[in-house]
Specification:
The chain is built from 40 helices and 27 strands. Among the domains are: 375 residues, Rossmann fold, CATH 3.40.50.2000; 268 residues, Glycogen Phosphorylase B (Rossmann fold), CATH 3.40.50.2000. Helix content is 44%, strand content 12%. The two termini are 40 Å apart. InterPro entries: Glycg_phsphrylas (IPR011833), Glyco_trans_35 (IPR000811), Pyridoxal_P_attach_site (IPR035090).
Length: 1032
């Protein structure tokens, strides 16, 4: 009866003309349906008394035409994939992975399938739809390929079943027997809402997932069980969030970043719970979890320490991405982040004899309870090979082509839930890990070739082994480029697959999808989307590129020409031959447009071309990102103006200024105030009378603190919090120095904590900072020589500890030499009994988010001393100010806007302005002047071997860079101003303590503009054109 009814429905959905057209479009390999049913589709017969097309006629047919009328209707799942699920349910033992091998876009009427021999299907049984499992019974949507042993097959897109469209949900829901549906609803997983439920979930995870018991559950097991219990809650909200977005058919944002410096996930998840019992009735609180753990015999603080930082980034780029995905969830923006699942991070930094030594960062040694490994999804990514046009040898590069790859790897996603604050929205961070198509070669192993039997596995897994492979040699460059394409290709096919489920025309792709490129690393996504649209979806080249341009937007993070990414043509063409063709075509049409607007301006064409012709020809990835995007933004007002007048001025000349905009960076106050500095956050909540911490969503409320800036009682409490944070940092430094307590705790309250923690680079000028420390040390020693007492010296140079932290790129010699100098100076200064507590130097190795959460709240002064015009924005400056630290800095990056927001009286600025930089560099080259005497004294101490007695010339490259190589970063020009400003800092901190605390309070009160929530609202309104989708 059911079959007859469905058949009627199918036939009614197709006209006679349709039916005839479908019959004519059948391939020669398709068999005419031999049964007597009235089904009008073109089918493969299986003689199993069941039609696997969605019309449910009573024949043994398999529908192969994706545009059959029944496909678009709301019968069983409105999709051929439902039939596939039925088939897999019948024959789970005989279907190879993957079942569907290709959607041949050159012949859209044909799906090809791989089947092993199998027995006739059993009678129809609908619950079999839900008996799927294992990779061979995959139920996800992804790009899958022919068997891995066929390297020349072009990857295709195929629809599979992860998310349902609303009509599909209703259709399938009616097929589930009432009893099954009742049982499912009765036993479905629910969020824990009280201590008893949390404890039940905790113990369940300990005893089942971890295989432990009451007797051997340690802090690590407690961390894992707590994380799993909280992840259960997040996963429920995550599913509801994705269903809500799908049901509303809402536009999504996809944020592509090579780094996501997330920090610890458990503490962040707890922050997103209500703060106190009774808040948001019906939901658990942080206090609930803390009390339950205490009752179970664990301390929350000890449990939190068990989690390693996720090694998914290095510096400000990755931390900005982490803040942004946090704010997108908090602001209810439908968004996914895409990155890479690094096995060993960038590296674990160890300091051995003062030198940075890179070792693997084993952050996944104990697994990661926060991520969901999606082994059922396998996206093949191809490299090398050639472009084949044998089917149409006269076609141009603008026509669809077949890329015959020479090597293929699989991308496996790991999903990481991203919760919002005071919302049930949970977005997704998808991280790709590379795996081989064939992990183990048995033939080679059996022949004794053990090494090569796993060669494919090693080659594939190197793609996601670590962040930023050293590119000082050709193999390193090739690995970096492969890594970037692997990530972009997997992400793009995931995005395209999700869009294709909506059955919208391609012209609506930009209306449903906004892709943000975080720096130039994901620029290949532009070319990959163009390839998909032209080669796989058969769109006209120009129509396709119009879609691409309206989809992408690009965030630039540098003003330094040498920092803009470029790839040699020879390497690029060998690795990605079809993509090079597409780039040539993009460049050709772009230069034609430029020439029309500025005829005969050959120099402009050379400067603006995507291909750099000087010397070895290279692809300018930043230029490609501009041409392929509809918006380009800088990350601070000064930075956005500089890129328009320097590195991208020719593009402004061509496109006009409207394509370029500014979105000043921001940070999430939940992580960098509430989580990093809980006592300060509580003090703020108390005084602005905000017990629910609403100011963490509306940071403008922080301005209420201004009325307490002169309040003596409030200042005392403020200073007490700072002192407690300094003691925590002293504990961390003691741990880093193997138990040696280099900071005198008796004088810690009167000791200025001067901190510079960030990626080590010459433009950030850690070398100038340590030169200043050396000068201070030499000047103090001179005073002691003159017979002054320690108390007298302290009046001129009060107690101070200079704290450094940050990693150098493995191949960056000068940055690693700066780290060595810092540690060499620390060895001398910290062991000088005459100096004692008046001056200390510390380098904190392996700087990461968790250490930043200890370091930043303890700062009195933070150094933002980059050469003017080189720092795009900086976000550590915002974090320090939000935690009550004052800035000593140049007029660079976001320092300009911070000064405007908090007031000139509450920041210590020095140095030359960006507009003077080029002239100063010119004068260094052609009109050298003597360097300042203070710097001269400092450099001569280095030359004397005071800090490297065994090798007096060890630091010669550092003083040569200033004296003989043009002083590119202008240390000599700013050094006197820097020292004078440091003297002013000493005076205010030690002689005007109340005034210092007032400046600290006013800084926090006026830092609200730099919330990442504000950034995301600006991106959503001015670039992405997307609206929030709040939970019902």
């Amino acid at each position: 009866m059911l079959a007859q009814k469905s058949t009627t429905r199918c036939v009614q959905g197709a006209t006679a003309q349709n039916r005839q057209q479908y019959r004519e479009n059948r391939t020669e390999s398709s068999n005419k349906c031999s049964c007597s049913c009235s089904c009008s589709c073109s089918c493969f017969c299986f003689c199993s008394c069941f039609c696997f097309c969605s019309c449910f006629c009573s024949c043994s047919c398999f529908c192969i035409y994706k545009e059959h009328p029944c496909f678009a209707r709301s019968c069983l799942g409105s999709s051929i994939v439902v039939s596939i699920l039925v088939l897999k349910s019948y024959f789970p033992f005989s279907l190879s992975l993957p079942l569907i091998t290709a959607l041949d876009t050159s012949h859209p009427s044909l799906f090809s399938f791989i089947f092993n021999p199998f027995t006739p299907a059993p009678p129809l049984f609908y619950p079999a739809l839900f008996t799927m499992g294992s990779p061979s019974g995959s139920t996800t949507n992804d790009m899958i390929t022919e068997e891995p042993s066929k390297p020349h097959q072009v990857p295709r897109l195929a629809r599979r079943l992860t998310g349902f469209l609303p009509s599909e949900i209703k259709s399938i829901d009616t097929m589930i027997p009432l009893k099954s549906r009742t049982l499912w609803n009765k036993h479905q997983v629910k969020k824990f809402e009280n201590p008893d439920q949390f404890e039940d979930r905790f113990i369940s995870h300990v005893e089942t997932n971890l295989g432990r018991s009451l007797y051997n559950c340690d802090d690590l097991a407690a961390y894992e069980a707590t994380s799993m219990a909280l992840r259960d809650n997040l996963t429920i909200d995550w599913n509801k969030t994705q269903q809500r977005i799908t049901a509303r058919d809402h536009k999504r944002v996809y944020y592509l970043s090579l780094e996501f410096l997330m920090g610890r996930a458990l503490d962040n998840a707890l922050i997103n719970l209500p703060s106190h019992k009774g808040d948001n009735s019906g939901t658990p609180s942080r206090d609930t979890v803390q009390q339950s753990l205490d009752d179970l015999g664990f301390k929350l603080e000890d449990v939190l320490q068990q989690e390693p930082d996720a090694a998914l980034g290095n510096g400000g780029l990755g931390r900005l991405a982490a803040c942004f995905v946090d704010s997108m969830a908090t602001e209810n923006i439908p968004a996914w982040g895409y990155g890479l699942h690094y096995q060993y991070g960038i590296f674990a930094q160890k300091i051995i004899n003062g030198y940075q030594v890179e070792t693997p960062e084993y952050w996944l040694m104990n697994g990661n309870p926060w991520e969901i490994e999606r082994n059922e999804i396998q996206v093949p990514v191809t490299f090398y090979g050639y472009v084949d046009r044998s089917n149409n040898p006269t076609s141009s590069t603008l026509s669809p082509a077949e890329w015959i790859g020479g090597e293929r790897v699989l991308a496996i996603p790991y999903d990481f839930p991203i919760p919002g604050f005071k919302t049930t929205t949970v977005n997704n961070l998808r991280l790709w890990q590379a795996r081989p198509t064939t992990e183990f070669d048995f033939a080679k192993f059996n022949s004794g070739d053990y090494k090569n039997s796993v060669a494919q596995q090693q080659r594939a897994e190197s793609l996601t082994a670590c962040l930023y492979p050293n590119d000082n040699f050709v193999q390193g460059k090739e690995l970096r480029l492969k890594q970037q394409y692997f990530w972009c290709a997997a992400s793009l096919h995931d995005i395209v697959r999700r869009f294709k489920k909506t059955n919208r025309p391609w012209t609506e792709f930009p209306d449903q999808v906004a892709i943000q490129l975080n720096d130039t690393h994901p620029t290949l996504a532009i070319v990959e989307l163009q390839r998909i649209l032209v080669d796989l979806e058969k769109l006209d080249w120009h129509d396709a590129f119009n879609i691409v341009q309206n989809t992408f937007s690009y965030t630039n993070h540098t003003v330094m020409q040498e920092a803009l990414e470029k790839w040699p043509i020879s390497l690029f063409g060998r690795l990605l031959p079809r993509h090079l063709e597409i780039i040539y075509d993009i460049n050709w049409f772009f230069l034609q447009e430029v020439e029309k607007k500025f005829p005969k301006d050959v120099d402009l064409l050379k400067r603006i071309s995507l291909i750099e012709e000087n010397g070895d020809r290279q692809i300018r990835m930043a230029f490609l990102a501009i041409v392929g995007s509809h918006k380009v933004n800088g990350v601070a007002e000064l930075h956005s103006e500089l890129i328009k007048t320097t590195i991208f001025k020719d593009f402004v000349k061509f496109y006009g200024p409207s394509k370029f905009t500014n979105v000043t960076n921001g940070i999430t106050p939940r992580r960098w105030l509430k989580q990093a500095n809980p006592k300060l956050a509580a003090l703020i909540s108390e005084y602005i009378q905000d017990p629910n911490d609403d100011y963490l969503l509306d940071t403008s409320k922080l301005t209420k603190l201004t009325q307490f800036a002169d309040n003596k009682e409030f200042q005392d409490k403020w200073n007490k919090v700072k002192l407690e944070n300094k003691l925590k940092l002293a504990d961390l430094i003691q741990k880093c120095y193997d138990g040696q307590d280099i900071i005198n705790r008796e004088h810690i309250g009167e000791t200025l904590f001067d901190i510079q923690v960030k990626r080590i680079h010459e433009y950030k000028r850690q070398q100038m900072n340590i030169f200043g420390v050396i000068y201070r040390y030499l000047a103090m020693k001179e005073l002691f020589k003159q017979g002054l007492t320690k108390e007298q010296v302290a009046k001129k140079f009060p107690p101070k500890v200079s704290i450094f932290g940050g990693k150098s790129a493995p191949g960056y010699y000068m940055a690693k030499l700066i780290i060595k100098l810092i540690n060499s100076v620390a060895d001398v200064v910290n062991n000088d009994p005459q100096i004692g507590y008046l001056l200390k130097v510390a380098f904190i190795p392996d700087y990461n988010v968790s250490k930043a959460e200890i370091i930043i709240p303890a700062s009195d002064l933070n150094e933002q001393i980059s050469t003017a015009g080189t720092e795009a924005s900086g976000t550590s400056n915002m974090k320090f100010v939000m935690n009550g630290g004052l800035i000593i800095g140049t007029v660079d990056g976001a320092n300009v806007e911070i000064t405007r927001e908090i007031g000139e009286d509450n920041i210590f600025l020095f140095g030359n302005l960006s507009e003077n930089v080029e002239e100063l560099r010119y004068n260094h080259q052609y009109h050298q002047k003597p360097i300042p005497k203070e710097l001269e004294m400092t450099l001569r101490s280095l030359e004397s071997g005071m800090f490297s007695p065994e090798n007096p010339n060890e630091f010669k490259p550092l003083w040569d860079a200033i004296e003989h190589h043009g002083d590119y970063y202008l240390v000599s020009d700013d050094f006197e101003s820097y020292l004078a400003t440091q003297e002013l800092v000493d005076q205010v901190y030690h002689n005007e303590q109340s005034e210092w605390i007032k400046k600290s309070i006013l800084g926090v009160a006026n830092i609200g503009f730099f919330s990442s929530d504000r950034c995301i609202q600006e991106y959503a309104d001015t670039i992405w054109n997307v609206e929030a989708l709040k939970p019902e």
